[in-house]
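A protein record pairs a chain with a discrete description of its three-dimensional fold. The following entry can be read in just this way:
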Amino acid sequence: MRGRFCKTVCGWLGLSLVMLSAGAFADDRLPTLNSEQANWVADRIFQNECNRQLSCLTSWNVGEDFPSLGIGHFIWYREGQRERFVESFPELLGYYVARGVDLPPWLAGLPGWASPWPDRETFLAEIDSEQMQSLRQFLSDTRGIQADFIMRRLEHSLPALTAASDQPAAIATEFYRVANSHVPHGMYALIDYVNFKGEGTATSERYRGQGWGLLQVLETMLATPDDGSVLEQFAAAAQQVLARRIDNSPAERGEERWRSGWNNRTRTYVP
């Protein structure tokens, strides 16, 4: 399964990275990865999000009121549901359609592409249903397109990051500094963090007015004296931002239980 995944994703990542290199800031460039490097990045994402397990492609975490699907754990809300986290699964479905990929008929026919499960109990009761199995297989077969979708999220994140900051030029410089560090590790760090905790520009994704996305990590790097390599600085800033999120989070969410895993993940950003 790993070989087929990497072979498929490699092509999409390579294409996306070439596109990314023509960014909005003419004086800067994102690195172009060769097939081996793109293979490595894709494998890391699948490892981080799913431990390469098919079963995790359809999951609903304890303490959350929504399922998360695919290698990017894309969030999916019910019709009319409003949460602080940015929903991404319907956007992925739209990307499939734009790429000419046929959705499973039952999925394509959902009104407004809204999640059909009213709660976690119903979701788990149907975890081995024919529809759920077909969904997992579809998500497994299209991992390459999901990886390309993640790449496009990164591509579109920089203008939003700079627009949301009072230091736009410095944020752009820091972004490219990370991206070009120890290629392909810098690209992996940026892609994985955006996939993991978002861009940090959505005002709905705040605890006590403070976000936890890529923007906040880059701002923390700017406010911290250089100490160690660029990717060591990035990982340390990410851990600081995530620690602040845990400290600011509502007690009922119990986010302390995630601290160790989050820190372990950010440590993988350092070669």
Notes: The beta strands are 58-59, 68-69, 74-75. The chain has one domain: 2-267. The longest strand covers residues 58-59. The CA atoms of residues 185 and 269 lie 6 Å apart.
